[in-house]
Target: Peptide ABC transporter permease
Amino acid sequence: MTGRAADRDASAVSPRARRALRRFLTNPLALVGTVVLGVVTCCALAPDVVAPHDPEWVAYVGTGDGRLTLAQSRSLPHPPAFGDPFFAPLGTTASGHGVFTELVYGARTALLVGLAAALLSSLVGVPLGLCSGYYGGWVDEAIQRVVDVLYGVPFLPFVIVLVAIRGASTTTVVLAIAATSWLNNCVVVRGTTLSLVRRTYVDAARAAGLPAHRIVARHVLPDVLPVAAVLLVQDAATAILAHATLAYLGLADVTTASWGVLLQQVQATGHVFDAPWWLLPPGLAIASLVAAFYYVGHAVEDVTGAD
Model:
């Protein structure tokens, strides 16, 4: 490609990018999702700045001899307090830890699980979907038969077996979620690829003698990437919800701060009905983050579909 042709392509791409960004920024749901993701990201990257206490902080400790009296322990979980006898804007758990502090430190786990599982799903599902759709024949048959078999594997028993083998760690949960969520990526990308390989510019590239990997990289992958981006965002939301569910069931690492563990502790200690300041915040945080990912995903889909 000559320099003049490259300049023409760059001048054509730039207005499209500006129009796409303008449409994204004028979408109210996209802005809401972006703000929520920004807040959660700040909490995940700098929890010690956002949280009022460190994770080891316990209510009442430091106001006396360092030990809780019988009356103090019976007052836990404590409703929100703003300086008397301690500062806990969302109250405390039954063990005296601040709910807001636990919420802030749990944001890192939520984002880590969501993004790690989504990236692993995309790294497996997108290349396999491209190969399946482009090459067809026995390659397509082999990949799709594996997908069919794995679709029949129930998620929860699979996680239980994996936890029994590897232990209830965050890595185990991420691997379990990614091992089942890449299937949808593969199927959707395959369908998109099948429609793209019938285009005239792909036939022209084949006739020009370009190798298959260059055709896929230059003529198929650019049109698949918007679909893959939408799937990535949706997979992140699904992974966050799945991790919270597994943590609530006791199948995640209970020693790591997470929103699902907070909900599991409410249920385990029997304070579901008498400690709403402990029950509602993690549930609302999970719902808000999942909704934010879906809002951004729908906005990306609208923007790329309009192009």
Notes: Residues 1-13 have pLDDT under 50 and may be disordered.
